[in-house]
Structure formats: C-alpha cells, structure tokens
Description:
Structural class: alpha+beta
Radius of gyration: 13 Å
Order of helices and strands: HEEEEHEE
Strand content: 25-35%
Number of helices: 2
Shape: globular
Distance between the termini: 32 Å
Amino acid sequence: xxxxxxxxxxxxxxxxxxxxxxxLAQVIPGNDPEVWRKDEFGAWIHRADYRNRHSDYGWEIADxxxxxxxxxxxxxxxxxxxxxxxxxxAARNQAVITADGLRNARRLL
Length: 109
C-alpha cells in the first residue's frame, strides 16, 4: 500500500486537509486510530488506502461544498470509496457499504 504524498494529492487536497479529514472519521476502540477508522455509514477505512479503489478499505474525500469554500472543512467527509461513488457520483442511496465484523459488506437501506 502506498503512502499519501507529503505535500498534496493528485485530487488537489494538500496533505494537511487529508490529515484533518481523516480525523473526522469515527475512531473505533481497540484499533489504532492512525490506521483504522469508520466512515459515517460504518464502513471500515484504512489510512494508507486513500484513493485506492482496489482495496475494500479504500476511501475518498466527499466534498459537500469545500471547493466553493462555503463551509470550509466542515463540508468534507472521509468516505469508503464505494459509498463515495454511490452517494457523490451516482446520487443513489438504496444501499451502503458498512462493517460486518472486520469486513465491509453492502447493506440495503
């Protein structure tokens, strides 16, 4: 797994924004919060898998207006990449990826 570049990502977010958005993800007791967290739908995400869509634990930054600077950091959310595609790109909300024990699984809403 590759690490995030120290200065910026190819998406345009600098390292500090990526770090701060990671900090918004849910901390799970018993897991290293620098490595493992969960998104707002309960899906596992892995810190080093930022923008890795080949990983079940990859994640993206969901932008609810940051690019317009309307809400600042409050408009950004860490989101497991399949949830990101479902909610930000396809605008679907019938199912989400969420944790099933230590794995991620699709759950109908």
